[in-house]
Design a protein that fits this description.
With 258 residues, the protein is an alpha+beta fold. The protein is built from four helices and 15 strands.
């Protein structure tokens, strides 16, 4: 039933990584062991533990993220909680994000499971092969992740720089904190009796800043990042429409195992 409604292991004390992917370089330096990768595509899956049609999409996301060309993020919405099971990862903030996408894409309804590819298009989240082919089309046309995010660590602080560029002057940089995997034993609702494995579960999203005529430069404490209780996060640069709804995701970098 379908309901309506873009790695490398580093073990030294400091590192500098320069990666050329999709025509740009992303430079990252951190003062502890971490896994770093720069994806070519960002796939946002809107899902719910209370949705009987969602487990195939959750499985598709798990398979998708085995390829580091893809950053897959699972946003658990809360609007199916009323049918018998409260999603343990659900958040009204994620439902709000999905509704914003719906307005941006001129859709009358939202649904689960829904996959948003690079903030540009959507489809059923269980269609793994279609998601990949759509992603490849964006890459080949030069409309995928094209803006570099430069991250440098110095004296316990992270410095994030995005150089000025003409195409997207008012893009927003987000930090998206996520858990890599968790198994949930669902007791009630449409998935009652199932144990479902969820991956890259988004738990928190924060706005770090916006690009301007001079690009973007921001600094924050690495200790503060760790204090949030998450070891994995993604930096996502996303443009917006004139009505402030989300538009194309144009850059991303992922830091895990902090």
């Amino acid at each position: 039933m379908t309901y309506q409604l873009g790695s490398k292991k580093i073990s030294t004390l400091a590192f500098a990584l320069a990666v050329n992917i999709a025509g740009f370089a992303s430079t990252i330096s951190l003062a502890n062991a971490a896994d770093i990768f720069t994806p070519k595509t960002v796939v946002e899956l809107f899902t719910s533990q209370g949705c009987s049609s969602c487990p195939p999409a959750d499985e598709a996301l798990t398979e998708l993220i085995k390829d580091k060309n893809y950053l897959g993020l699972a946003y658990h919405v809360d609007y199916w909680d009323y049918i018998g099971w409260k999603d343990t990862f659900g958040s009204p903030e994620f439902t709000k994000r999905q509704r914003s996408y719906s307005r941006a894409m001129n859709e009358r309804q939202i649904y689960t499971p829904q996959a948003i590819i690079n903030g540009r298009s959507h489809m059923n989240g269980a269609y793994g092969d279609k998601i990949k082919s759509t992603a490849q089309n964006y890459i080949q046309s030069g409309e995928s992740l094209t803006v570099p995010i430069i991250v440098v660590e110095n004296a316990g602080r992270l410095s994030v720089t995005i150089k000025a560029q003409d195409t997207y002057k008012d893009a927003t940089l987000y930090a998206v904190y996520f858990e890599p995997e968790e198994v949930v034993d669902i007791k009630r609702g449409e998935n009652a009796g199932k144990k479902v494995t969820y991956t890259n579960i988004v738990r928190k999203i924060e706005m770090l800043g916006m690009t301007g005529e001079n690009g973007l430069h921001a600094e924050f404490s690495l200790a503060d990042v760790k204090a949030k209780g998450f070891k994995n996060y993604a930096l996502i640069l996303q443009s917006k429409n004139t009505d402030m709804t989300p538009s194309a995701i144009i850059g991303a970098s992922v830091i895990t195992n902090l």
